[in-house]
Fold these 3 entries.
Entry 1:
Amino acid sequence: RPRVLSGIQPTADSFHFGNYLGALRQWVALQEEHEPFFFIADMHAITVEQDPRQLRERCLRAAAQLIAMGVDPERSAIFVQSQVPAHAQLAWVLQCLTGFGEARRMTQFKDKSSKNGEGAASVGLFTYPILQAADILLYRPAFVPVGEDQRQHLELTRDLAQRFNHRYKKTFRLPEPYILKATAKILDLQDPHAKMSKSASSPGGIIEMLDDPKLSAKKIRSAVTDSGSDVRFDEEEKPGISNLLTIYSALTDRPVSELEEAYAGRGYGDFKKELGEVVVEFVTPFRDRTLELLEDRATLDEVLRSGAKRAAEVAERTLADVYDRVGFVPAP
Ligand code: TYM
């Protein structure tokens, strides 16, 4: 079975709708027909300052949320990045293959470092995409399910894989990004020109999966909508309504055209109220399940322990090939 791999940063207490609809839902779907590796990117998280206690807690919350949304620990290796040292080890080798200018072109670094000036950003933030390339290439996956904002990192990953294969010997598989067009970029509810983001969105702009469901329904009802009154999908003229239609359609599996018909002539108020109800119905069981799992630390620890073990077996084999090919003397 072809492998899939993806990761998520534990930088908030809760995942949000962008994470879920853009990526995590595809993790759940793809685990059926693939050999899945899914991890919590704690090493990426420390590229900006984190509170140590909170970081540890958020890793467990991330694991609980993944299981609650349907990532099956029997089928999928769920693990914490820092527990598989091969990630850091391969990242070094790949850094030595990356051009400085090439790394500088990564738009996420430009965005994230522009706030306080480049000089204040850590070198880790700069080399972040290269660690991500290592995360991916170690597992030789066929697909990497992510949102649109990760596309450039996937392109760098493929470039580095090709460069290594060419310079040494074919070692890495070129991974395909798995980005579903309809949900690749979920927008901020208060600013439908920006993506929904844990670092940039205002509280009203972001729906957190573990929020009180009533609060989430309220955020939907107060989402910024566009002038006019018909519920119609039009990203140019009606980005706010289009974003809500995308969310509605994804949560119910009803095509956008069917929703447009169902709400024809009924106005925004009805539409947002009913989407609020859909959201409550969806997040309530998810939230209950997550909170239940968080009560059982022993099980979470065991899931992460066995996940790291399965991951390390694969990752160490790839790393051994890499070390051999670059000419490192074998360890005794
Ligand atoms: P992160 O933690 O920012 O986000 C996790 C996943 O959620 C997707 N996403 C979105 N999709 C659609 N609309 C949005 N508004 C939205 N916001 C976030 C992201 O695209 C991502 O798929 N660098 C990665 C973590 C990572 C990784 C990896 C991913 C580290 N190593 C290896 C894949 C493979 C990140 O920061 O994702």
Entry 2:
Amino acid sequence: QAKLHTRGDVSRYTARMGDAASAELATELELRAALEDQRVQIFLQPRLDLVDGVCRGAEALMRIRRADGSLILPGDFIAVAERCGLMPRLGAVVLEQSCQALSTLRRSSLGEDFRLSVNLSPLELHDEALASRVEAALCRHGLPASALELELTETALVDDPLAAERRLSELRALGVAIALDDFGAGFSGLSHLLRFPISVLKIDRSFIERLRSDRIADALVEGLVGMAQRLGLRVVAEGIERHALITALQAMDCDEAQGYAIAKPMPLESLVGWLDSAREPQLTA
Ligand code: C2E
Ligand code: MG
Ligand code: MG
Ligand code: MG
């Protein structure tokens, strides 16, 4: 009966609002319904260790499953979720499912040291209870903090750097690794690396896709990998769409790679099968 009311509201509003606003409202209602009906789901995308070609971790990526089974991708709902205040609830579901998946994977014969990285929105970073929520989730699933990595973009750091610094130090004190996502895409302050306790750099896909066809991209990626090494950071290359790039990144001493050429994001059940068949090292070179 609650649903009928909502539907009535939608048609009343849509008659008076612009297309964009009604699309946003439709997305908001879809998100609320998905939270209610437990149709928020994580997909996992493998990360390959470039030293030996073994997959020891994955990134959790949020999807909304519509009632008809089709998927909504983050590009179509994250911004709306942030504006209508639903991001913290969605993020909490992602964190819980990620810890659940981690405990399943770590109990299987495949991945005793398996790690997952989880994306955090700027809003979540500014939640004062973040570290204690993360600690509680790890504890509920009997996981060490080293099983989890949290990914942030630079935008999360710039609007309130003092608060960000505090939250990140709390997370580091717990033992959770912090990754700087989409590195190089925004207003990259290299100073972020000085100020915040970051341990992983994820080089943005826009650099990776130009590798081997653009000498500037080659030089930039090689330089970033070298710099990260000097700083003691792990480097992950995101958005590997061509297999040849894996060899190129190995030659540059990049630590890990992630992208469609290795595997697309998939549900946990599929990842277990994928890991099983990928037990043999992936690298042919
Ligand atoms: P991201 O964290 O940089 O995640 C990588 C995105 O690139 C994912 O898109 C992934 O599916 C896509 N990708 C991976 N390999 C390739 C490739 O080889 N080629 C191309 N073209 N794309 C590739 P997705 O899943 O649509 O997520 C988009 C963004 O939405 C993420 O970018 C992240 O910023 C955000 N996001 C996803 N899940 C969550 C979440 O649980 N919480 C928060 N706060 N943000 C999330
Ligand atoms: Mg990410
Ligand atoms: Mg990224
Ligand atoms: Mg991105």
Entry 3:
Amino acid sequence: FSTSARQVRGPDGERLGAVLAYQEITDLIRAIEVKDEFVASVSHELRTPLTSVLGHLELLCESDDLPAEAAAQLRVVQRNALRLQALLADLLLIGQVADGTLELHMGPADAAAIAREAVEFARVSAQRAGISLTADLPERLPLRADAQRLRQVVDNLVSNAIKYSRSGDAATVTARQEGDRVVIEVADTGIGIAAEELDHVFGRFFRGGEAIQRQITGTGLGLSIVGSIVAAHDGTVTVESEQGRGTTFRATLPARL
Ligand code: ADP
């Protein structure tokens, strides 16, 4: 059942009573489950043929006797097949979150090293976009976490900071210890997020108006994945933003040392 309640007031604002509404939403929940199952099984089924496509592409790309133009086209095909693979991985992860089967491989990790690697990984794309990417990180920042998933969190935040910034803008990754917590911040001086969209950015498939208008490519899955991974670590992630001036995402995770 879904419930909602509302006060009823008269013309002078006096309280007349209240309306309490109960709605039976079994069918709606079942429909959402069916949709989640469908997305999960389609993503799963697409993975095997795509792995085969990528394997053959890799062999072809390594061949020395391809004409230059064919080799260049094959690389485009390979790049797009890799994008498809990343998208499928995101959809599978979203499916695992939805049906509660997301498994974390917790172990000793270093948030500073993870953030440093993410910054190095994004260095070239930041340079290409004309964005200065800097990191302000301590030598080490130990915590217990699923290092691979945490890297995914920082990768998503950093790639967004670059995607939603303009040439000449800056993006900064910082991390620090606060008591028994580790805080990772990704800030940019980019296009920002409209105030009325702030509550929705962590939703599945949500894309901002500016993102669509500026034709910035995306699926609306990145932040939903960030939110789910951080929540699975018993952490929180928040966003502050001013349209036209920039955005800061802050993930706070228990160090659990
Ligand atoms: P995608 O980037 O694929 O659209 P995300 O889930 O990563 O999906 O982000 C959802 C939306 O949040 C984006 O479409 C964009 O509107 C907004 N957003 C995310 N990160 C930023 C950022 N650093 N600056 C401005 N807007 C952002």
